[in-house]
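so my prof wants the structure for this chain in the tokens format not the other one, which i didnt know existed until like an hour ago. anyway here's the sequence
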Amino acid sequence: NAMTKNITIDKITYTISTDPRDLFKDNPIMQRKCSVALDMMEDCLDYIYNLMKPHYPNVFKPELYISDSTERNAIAYQGKTIIIFSGLIIQQADYIEKKYTPELLKKYKVFQNISHEKTLSGLRVYFWRYVILHELYHIWNKHSLWKKIYEFSEDGKLVQKIQIPAGTDLTNVFLQIIGNSFESEQVSATTKAPNKSEKQKKLTQQALELDADSSAICMIINMMMRDITARGISADKKGAYIRDEIGLIVAALATAFSLFDGNAGAK
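here's what i got, hopefully its the right format
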């Protein structure tokens, strides 16, 4: 049941779909790369949703879409949707394949117990876990809602724009308030000196990015530790397994920050 639709963000219209075959009908390579990335992210979303739902009944699994845009970006949209731009998928695949060559991996002892093929596979898995969990926590932690309710005055003081009655269940008013807002990994550059309000806005965005980052990375580590039990890894092999996985996680994070080229707010 694939869904394809057009959305407008900052006056730019994008075509998005739950099935990459709808976006790249005449490009089987793009279909394959996007489908592989999509499967990894869907698996991660299913994992964390099934893990968290019994303890936090209000959590929900966002809709996941691929965009045909060549932008290197990923966004949390309208508080209920995650959109991954195909430009990020292609550049991630190219970056990992070109950088992490067999010759390069020989220089790093942390990867000595993993084959080249498994190293690249592990990097892809953790890269997409990081990206999807980062966007998921933008949504679950209601960052767009916070920015709709609060703003900073010219002198940098916090101002509440929308008054929410005490005891209100924010779940019921969440989507109504945030409208078409979104959280993006692309940050617009500015040449003029920022005023206090703009400085506070930037600091706030960095704080929200840090919140999404730290939440995502904590969950990645939790998932890794749960995998040890699920895979029945023995106590004598546990240390080596953790060392190898942490190496892959760090390399995947370094790849993400390289691709976002300094735009990730919490770099």
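also thought this was worth mentioning. The two ends are 37 Å apart (CA to CA).
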